[in-house]
Every structure is written in C-alpha cells, then in structure tokens.
Amino acid sequence: MIKILDDVNKIELINKQDKPVCWSLYDRKYSKDNMFRLKGLILPLSNTCKSAWIRCTSSTAGNETKRQKLIILGTGWGSYSVLKSIDKKLFDVVVVSPRNHFLFTPLLCSTTVGTLEFRSIIEPIRNSGFRETEHFHLSYGTSIDFKNKLLRCESVLKPSLQYDLKYDKLVIGVGALSNTFGVPGVDKHAFFLKEVADARKIRNRILHNFELSVQPGIDDSESKRLLHTVIVGGGPTGIEFGAELYDFVKEDVSRLYRKKQHDVHVTLIESNQILGSFDDKLRKYAEKKIKERSRFELKQASVVEVKEDRVILGDGTHIPCGLVVWSTGVAPRQFVKGLEIPKNSRGQILTDKFLHVIGDKNDSVFAVGDCADIDDQPLPCTAQVCDYMYYTCIVPREPIFVLNDLVF
Ligand SMILES: Cc1cc2nc3c(=O)[nH]c(=O)nc-3n(C[C@H](O)[C@H](O)[C@H](O)COP(=O)(O)OP(=O)(O)OC[C@H]3O[C@@H](n4cnc5c(N)ncnc54)[C@H](O)[C@@H]3O)c2cc1C
Q: One matching Pfam family, short form (predicted)?
C-alpha cells in the first residue's frame, strides 16, 4: 500500500532503469487527468506494479527554485502578523530581528508589578514553522541596498559579524523607540517600557526601593523619596502603568510592606492632557478616576531634566523620586533614520496604500507598524492597526493595508 500525499503533483511509475512503465490502478489506466483524484488516497498496488518503483514529486519540492525569498525585519506586532499570515509554500520566509520572540505589549505593564509573568506574554519566534533552521537570524538590519535588493545585517551575538542577505521581497517592521525629546538625563536615569527587559528592570527597581526603604539607616524623607514614582507621559502606556502600580499598592504593598503603604506616592506628569488621542468622554472619565485615588497626583508640566534622584520641571520645581518611568510617544530607530527614502514629519517611512515603500523603484519593499505611515492616511501607532493589517492580509476587503504582492 502506498499513501499519495496531498501535495504530490506528479506520480510516475518507473522501472529499475529509471524508465516510465505503464501501470494500472483498480484496473484503470493511470492518466494525468485522474491524478488529482488520487491525491490523499492509499493506493493498493496491482500485481503488474509490484516490480515497479514509484516516484512522487511534491508541488513544494518541484517549485523550490521558483519560491521567492521574503525577508521580514522584526518580530513585533507588524512583522509577526505578516509572518503568521503569509503562505509559506509560496515564499522562503526569513526573519531578521534582535528579538527572538513576539511580545504581547498590551500586557507588558502587568509584568512590572508581578501580576503576570514575563513568559506568559511572549511567543518564541522559532515556533513559527521555519522551513530551514537558518531562516531566523538574531541580528539587526542595518541598511538596505534598494537597487540590488540587499539587506545588510549585524549579528546581535557578535557585532563584528556583518553580512548581506538577498531578498525578492522585504517587509520592514522594526517598530520605534521611546521618544526622549532630547531631555537631559532621560537615557541615563529614566526607565522605558517597551520590551520585556524594560519591564524586568522596573520590577527590580520597585522591589529594590521597597526593600531599601525598610532598612535601618534610611530616614523618613529618603524612604518617601524611594517610594515616590514619577511617570512622565499621560498616554495609554503611562496611564496603564499607573493603574497597575495603584493595584499593586492596594493589594500587595498593604500586606507585604504594611508600615510603608502610606509613604507610597505616584505623580503622573503630562505637558498637555492625558490620553490626548482618546475620546473626550473617556479622557474625562480617566481623569476623574485618577483624581479620586489617594497619593496619586496628576501634574500638568514639562520635565526639563531627569537626575538620579529627582526630576526637574520647567518652572524649576524639583520632585525627588526613586523611579522615573518615561513614556512620551515614539521616535524613529537609527535603522529607519538611515534609509534614504521619503518619510513624514515624524520620521516614519512613507508607504502607498498597499504598504509599498515609496521610493523603492523595484516595488519589492513594504513597511508596517510604528515605523511606517501610509501617505495621506495616517494611522495611530497601535497593535490594533498592525492586527488589522494582518486581517486584511488574509481576507482583503478594501484596497488599503494590504501587502498586495504577498497576498494570493
Ligand atoms: C507597554 C505598551 C502597551 C501597549 N498597549 C497597547 C494596547 O493595549 N493596544 C494597542 O493597540 N497597542 C498597544 N501598544 C502599542 C503597540 O505595542 C505598538 O503599536 C506595536 O508594538 C507596534 O508594532 P511594530 O511591529 O511596529 O513594533 P514592535 O512591536 O515594537 O516590534 C518591532 C520589532 O522590530 C525589532 N527590531 C528593532 N530594530 C530592528 C532592526 N534594526 N532590525 C530588525 N529588527 C529590529 C524589535 O526587536 C521588534 O521585534 C502598547 C505599547 C506598549 C509599549
């Protein structure tokens, strides 16, 4: 008995000299016309076939040389959506990213206070079914030669290791950095909240501050400083982190550090209004909720400097604190800055409505997510936007957000 697999598109019976032989199936002559009906069947070999050899060729094996090489840069919301939705039979999919996992960012804030564990919000990228082991590169993309369709890479593990990868199609989904607006001391003293490593650092600092605050030799004012957290930026991430911290103080600190619970203080600083991109009703509701919370202060001000133990405001006020979490929007990564292609005023790569990078004359490069913007159709930098792109990749509904050349 021989099982003919579904992806077989050629079945031949050959003799030992590698010459085709005639054979019968259920006493019917085998022909190309009925081959499709054979796929997936278990074939009983007739007497006449017993001495023959069967050669089956699968469609994928047959097309190996025809498959295009698609390189995906990044393992975030945008790139992962493409990776999950792409038909891997049609492309050799290669991923290049300094991160070997997909991160479910909406739950990142919960890991800073231990509500969730880090491993619960990540998905290892090697679980994505790569055709070859070497189809994932733990490397940065450093530049693109658009003319010759080459991506320059630099290994994360050995920076002196730099190499080129040739692509037929390239998807750029490198995301963005936290915007520091060039405020002095932010890079050195503030904590960002974009990656698991950032959340881990915040968690360690919170624990460090609480433990130190109860040690002998730490006076009241130092203890209050340690337990004062300043959040800079009233966007969704800043507000969400504040909410997590509030729950942590209410549920855990009151039990674990009972004597210190009244020293805990959170100040959220926003130069404009909180949740600026949200509906007015929602914004007012969030504002009301925050103001109801004791020891949680909302401050409208601009931070002009961050020091190791304080933030300094535009009016000269010094706010002593033990932790500064900085979340004031996004800025382009060095990789994006270095690409000589049209960008918008915020430094994002401009694409057409099919996500083709404007300026790529070969029409082979696409850009998705926070690093990109559709010309004349700006979209917010959210995971939902990336996810919508993913949906329309599979089920194209409108002529927007579709990686047109990659959809079949
Ligand atoms: C704490 C937090 C909470 C959030 N909550 C929500 C929410 O509730 N709802 C929502 O819609 N959005 C939310 N967002 C926003 C959302 O996460 C982003 O809009 C989304 O991650 C953008 O996806 P992206 O693929 O563009 O970038 P990212 O997800 O940031 O991924 C970028 C990828 O590119 C890789 N990379 C970086 N440099 C290079 C390079 N040179 N070469 C190759 N790869 C590179 C990175 O390692 C990463 O894998 C949140 C963001 C944060 C930080």
A: Pyr_redox_2
- For residue 185, the tally of other CB atoms under 10 A from its CB is 18
Ligand 1 and 109: CB distance under 6 A: yes
Q: Which pLDDT tens digit goes with each residue over 167-176?
A: 999 999 999 9
Please give the span between the terminal C-alpha atoms of the chain, in angstroms, as a whole number. Answer: 35
| Tens digit of each residue's pLDDT (9 = 90 or more) over 95-105 | 999 999 999 99
Interval 20-56: pLDDT, tens: 654 444 333 444 444 434 444 444 444 434 444 555 5
Quick one: what percent of the chain has pLDDT higher than 70? 79
DSSP structure class, residue 250? I
Closest CA to 144 of 107, 171, 114: 171
Distance 76 CA to ligand 1 centre (A): 5
CA 337 – ligand 1 centroid, Å: 17
Query: Is 329's C-beta closer than 6 angstroms to any atom of ligand 1?
Result: no
Which of 382, 388, 389 has most ligand 1 atoms within 8 Å of its beta carbon, as the pocket-test mutant?
Answer: 382
| Ligand 1 center to 306 CA (angstroms) | 25
- Residue-by-residue DSSP string for 296-351: EEEEE--EEEEETTEEEETTS-EEE-SEEEE---EE--HHHHT--S-B-TTSPEEE
Sign, CA dihedral 49-51-52-56, equals positive
Task: Give the domains, in start order, of the chain with CATH numbers.
Answer: 2-62 (no CATH), 68-176+332-406 (3.50.50.100), 186-329 (3.50.50.60)
Q: At 22, which amino acid appears? A: C
State if residue 335 touches ligand 1 by the CB under 6 angstroms criterion.
Answer: yes
CA of 206 to the centre of ligand 1 (A): 24
Instruction: Give the residue among 120, 177, 174 at the shortest CA–CA distance from 144.
Output: 174
Helix/strand/coil for 278: coil
